[in-house]
Write a structure and sequence with these properties.
The protein is α/β, with parallel strands linked by helices. Helices cover about 35% and strands about 20% of the residues.
Length: about 325
């Protein structure tokens, strides 16, 4: 998406993890595998070598959870050399024709980029849905919605927000109400919605998912109003009580004018994008990525562990150990 998010504890440098021998699939480090090799492991031994897989890691924790789980399976089940690259959502697409990026594991829309790289240049391909259903929108604390129930009429009366602009203003919003966005690289149409609905508000960027979460948590702890760009799936939803302000529903074409939009965000059926070179390489890693699918709850559980005390690998292994039927279905069969 043109999302606003940031990966929490990830180094800005490229993180490279090199292949692990297939025998590791039967070690205590392999997900849910002990004793004799599984049928999938035996099948993997007869496949073409996996080689190196370059996975873009976009800056939000949910995506980091995707990469942690997929990367762990590729390493421990197919002996792939997995290279995770911290790149923004839009910039990731530029790596397809150069070979720097083989896969984006969680794509939020980007119809313009799909038109260029998939339809016109044919350097990328849609690799199917992740199973995650994405929602982007404007959210307020539940305590504020409970105290001011008429603010929830934005679906039929978006201008009701102007009544509360003074309560949402900050030192950075120049006398207007503030809508707190995150990372400028995230999918966002907030300024266009302000223009389209005639709202006395200003977009202020926190700079990252982590900074936005901190601001939201602080406002709720202090019982202060905050209006924030937010999205699900999002592990942070279990930490805070937020209410989604709905606007007139999205219809195809309502966002055609990118500077003045009078409708809500569309729903996002999140998908995976891969380079054409990777898709046609014969690498079994492509099959795993194409088959990768899970739920919002699955992603949130791994993301919550990553933001807690677990490393990416430990959080991935915990989920994989608990869900063998899910990840085994991603593996090449036969």
């Amino acid at each position: 998406m043109t999302l606003v998010r940031q990966g929490p504890r990830r180094l800005a440098a490229v993180v490279a993890t090199f292949g692990i021998i297939l025998g590791a699939c039967t070690s205590s480090n392999a997900p849910a595998s002990a004793g004799a090799p599984s049928a999938s492991t035996a099948a993997a031994a007869s496949m073409a070598p996996c080689g190196t897989v370059n996975i873009a890691v976009n800056p939000w924790v949910g995506y980091e959870a995707d990469a942690a789980v997929v990367g762990y399976v590729l390493q421990h089940q197919l002996a792939c050399a997995v290279v995770k690259k911290d790149i923004g959502g839009q910039t990731s697409w530029q790596g397809f024709p150069t070979g720097e990026v083989d896969a984006i594991l969680e794509n939020w829309g980007h119809e313009d980029l799909a038109a260029k790289y998939i339809t016109t240049d044919k350097t990328a391909q849609d690799a199917g849905q992740t199973g995650n259903e994405g929602i982007i929108g404007w959210y307020i604390p539940k305590f504020f919605a409970d105290a001011n129930p008429d603010i929830l009429t934005t679906k039929t009366n978006p201008q009701i927000l102007n009544k509360y602009a003074d309560q949402f203003k900050t030192s950075e919003s120049g006398g207007k109400g503030q809508i707190l966005d995150g990372d400028p690289s995230f999918v966002t149409q907030d300024q266009a919605m302000i223009n389209g609905f005639g709202l006395n508000f200003k977009v202020v960027y926190s700079g990252s998912e982590a900074a936005s979460n901190k601001a939201i948590q602080s406002a709720i702890d202090q019982q202060k109003p905050i209006l924030a760009y937010y999205y699900t799936p999002n592990w942070f939803s279990a930490k805070v009580a937020l209410v989604h302000l709905e606007f007139p529903a999205y219809t195809p074409g309502c966002d055609a004018n990118k500077t003045k939009i009078a409708c809500d965000y569309p729903p996002y059926h999140l998908n995976k994008i891969v380079s054409t070179k990777f898709a046609t390489s014969g690498s079994p890693a492509y099959t795993v990525i194409k088959n990768f699918t899970w739920t919002n709850d699955d992603q949130n559980s791994v993301a919550a562990d990553i933001t807690g005390s677990m490393s990416d690998d430990d959080a991935a292994k915990k989920w994989l150990d608990a869900n063998p039927d899910k990840w085994k279905a991603w593996l090449p069969q036969g």
